[in-house]
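Working notes for the structural subgroup meeting. M.R. asked for a predicted model of this chain before we commit to crystallization trials. I am recording the input and output together here so anyone reviewing the notebook later can reproduce the run.

Input as submitted:
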Amino acid sequence: MSRVHAFLDRRFALSARETTISREMMAGLTSFLAAAYLIVVIPSLLSTGGMDRGAATTAAILVMALGSIAMGVYANLPFIVGPGIGGSVILGVTLAHNEHVPFATGLAIAMTSGLLFLVLTLTGARELVVKMIPPQIKLGLGASIGLFIAMLGCRDAGMVAVNAKTMALKLGDFSQPGPVVALIGLAVALALQARKIPGAVLAGIAVAAVAGVPLGLTKLPPSVVSLPHALTPVALQVDFVGAFSLAALPYVFAFFAGEFFSTLGTTLAIGAKAGLTDAEGNLPGIERPFLVDSFAAALGPLIGIPAGTALVESAAGVEAGGRTGLTPVAAAVLFLGALCLLPLAMAIPKQATAPALILIGVSMLGTIRHLRSEAVTDLFPAMAMVLLTLISNSFGTGIAGGLLVHVIVQVLAGKAREIPVGLFILAIPLGYYFYTAATH
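Returned structure, recorded in token form:
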């Protein structure tokens, strides 16, 4: 065993978690490819509100790289970190575009939420919330997030669309190149995975990307190398004057609640899929990933990116065999490389990465089978969480709703004394969260 191999084995506990360097490298590459679309989507959402798109692209990549390195080195978990779509929609679309709030004020609102994250993490309050969550909600987390990931993949592929008149989901046009490319990649990944061939998900992405060339989806870039855009237009553009007002309070809570429960669900559900949780569904040492994403949420706005969090796309790396922090470190190296190789990284269309999300999401739906109780007081909150995830298109909202429904159902069933006092207290801001979501 070489010195480098021995060092990595000790540092990331590779042998203890029954994994190898090559497997972790493959998982890192898979995670990178699964999340690469965010390099395009996040800046696009932020530019809607007037933010410089080139600078936002550089900022997004830096948050993904630095956050993932921190998660890998400090927490030793296979989660990549980056800006969430929900927070970017709140800042770029809701605040800046619809409400005409300057993006500098929006960044200050996001940073206020991130600092609140950090305080709750440092005081151990976030870990207490995890311990208060009932087992049936934890068991339903995987299914809720799996549904979210699978639907995200279907939408990326164009397999699912929204009826403009009824706002209901409908089948997409399968004669279009998007669904065709995604189905090709999904078939390859399924065939290889059924034969237990390593790198099945990555192979599906690669084949789908190649199939997209003659169909016009995968556009070969004129040049491979480009210089990254300067951060100057977005860095340190944080204005707290407008952030400290009653009008901003609902948005501070929207950032906070959405990202809090998104991170909570991601760490527990994907941690369980990686075999890192205990018998009660808890993730040992969860304060470490919480601290990493808290710093990402608090410091990200300083370089122009709101709401850094553990990403659901981490499930792609776990599916590829990632079990340690070496996975996000490998992904981070690729993200940094994307700063100069952005044209090549962006040549892979989202339709090519969609099969990975669909396959991973479907595999996570199976976690609901562990909920063996037949009592409606156990089943209803878990299923409400899954349905709210689908309806709201946000698993953060789904988890928050599942917890609130659990409290209500237990009270109606005459079991109020069985509910921890902390959950009653948590139900108050959760109720406020849904009120603001319905009225804003």
